[in-house]
UniProtKB/TrEMBL annotation:
<protein>
    <submittedName>
        <fullName>SanA protein</fullName>
    </submittedName>
</protein>
<dbReference type="GO" id="GO:0005886">
    <property type="term" value="C:plasma membrane"/>
</dbReference>
<feature type="domain" description="DUF218">
    <location>
        <begin position="55"/>
        <end position="192"/>
    </location>
</feature>
<dbReference type="InterPro" id="IPR051599">
    <property type="entry name" value="Cell_Envelope_Assoc"/>
</dbReference>
<dbReference type="Pfam" id="PF02698">
    <property type="entry name" value="DUF218"/>
</dbReference>
<dbReference type="InterPro" id="IPR003848">
    <property type="entry name" value="DUF218"/>
</dbReference>
């Protein structure tokens, strides 16, 4: 009987310790996420008030059936087009994942903007933008970007701004979904992604492809 009570007390102590550790970890994640979210929050501006920059960095967001930009990606590209045609930027850097031969994301992005009046001379493609972090680091190290407007949806923009500014780009952000109702659909994913971004920036992690392309261009 006494041994049973001792076992139960030990189990309660372990449970309390696990609860404390779990609570501490949750608070740590929340604090790190909030730091990333608010670090460059003041650099999110409306399209009309965006400062001039040499280039708009547009992050990939997948393709729809038929190899055309997904609705989320098309929204980003439309916002970048508005910046280009409005004279806010001189060129577009389209960063996407071309690591799969059947998923030519940057080609679809480039075709989309060319069909809408952007000349070849104003379009650059980063075919190894496998993530927000990789796209931002490569924008600076491979394409020499020092100042840029970042174009993505509002839920993603604070993380993109944190990474880009932390790796040496003087970056401002324009929300592709400007004026649309806020959605909490991506809240949990972004919370965890912000923490990951913080760790990668602090560790100065290299992108998966430090130079060159994710795969050779088609011949």
């Amino acid at each position: 009987m006494r041994r049973g009570r001792q076992t139960m007390r030990r189990a309660r102590r372990w449970l309390k310790a696990l609860l404390v550790l779990g609570l501490g970890a949750a608070l740590g994640v929340a604090a790190a996420s909030l730091y990333v979210e608010h670090r460059y929050l003041d650099r999110i501006v409306p399209q009309a008030q965006a400062p001039h920059a040499p280039v708009a960095l547009v992050y990939g967001a997948g393709l729809a059936p038929g190899g055309v930009p997904s609705p989320v990606l098309a929204q980003r590209l439309d916002a970048a087009l508005a910046l280009y045609h409005g004279g806010k930027v001189e060129a577009l850097l389209l960063s996407g994942d071309n690591s799969d031969r059947f998923h030519d994301e940057t080609h679809a992005m480039a075709q989309y903007v060319r069909e809408r009046g952007v000349p070849d001379s104003a379009v650059q493609e980063d075919t190894a933008g496998l993530s927000t972090y990789d796209s931002s680091v490569r924008a600076r190290s491979i394409f020499g970007v020092r100042r840029a407007l970042l174009v993505t949806q509002r839920f993603h923009l604070t993380r993109a701004l944190y990474i880009a500014n932390s790796v040496g780009i003087d970056a401002w952000g324009v929300a592709a979904d400007e004026g649309s109702p806020r959605t909490r659909r991506y809240a949990l994913r972004e919370t965890l992604s912000r923490v990951l971004a913080l760790g990668m920036v602090w560790a100065e992690a290299p992108p998966r492809y430090p130079s060159g392309q994710a795969r050779p261009p088609s011949r």
